[in-house]
Amino acid sequence: MDAASLYETERLYLRPTGSEDAEFIFALMNSPKWIQYIGDRNIRDVVEAEAYILNKMSPQYERLGFGNYTLIRKADMVKIGTCGLYDREGLDGVDIGFAFLPQFEKQGYGFEAASKVKSLGFEVFNLEKISAITTKENLNSQKLLLKIGLKYSGMHTPPDDEPLMLFSEMNPKTENQSLKTI
Hints:
Elements: E1 7-8, E2 12-16, H1 22-29, H2 32-38, H3 46-64, E3 68-73, E4 78-86, E5 94-100, H4 109-123, E6 129-134, H5 139-147, E7 151-156, E8 164-170, H6 172-181
Parallel strand pairs: 5-6
Antiparallel strand pairs: 1-2, 2-3, 3-4, 4-5, 6-8, 7-8
């Protein structure tokens, strides 16, 4: 990983998730809220977690230059969660998503990481639009999406899945340029 791939906030380092994070990803993907709100990915051991990283996460990062970031707390270098930008088929705009181990929730890390990732999406990766999807039941996710500036924009139904709430925001630079051409 090159130094340009490492980002930071006041309390966190954000670095692309790699095979060295397999144990952490295994724990995160099997946490109760991940299973409840994101869904069971059938990752039953660390070897499967490593395969998931290599086959699902790394290819998007290699293709687009962004993806899933492991969040590392600066104070003690502990891995606390993930936040990233995901190119999801059938979704208008790149999806921003986040998840934390239970002991690191409700400490402001979600806002800190999601704000940074949204900023990277618009300012570094020049995305035109950032979207997010969440279940109706996931009130904490909805609050965080609104807090970072996304707006509720209706329902989205992925193929063969339940309807999800859709939030989105246009890149202010792109939006302002569009207004100038009118």
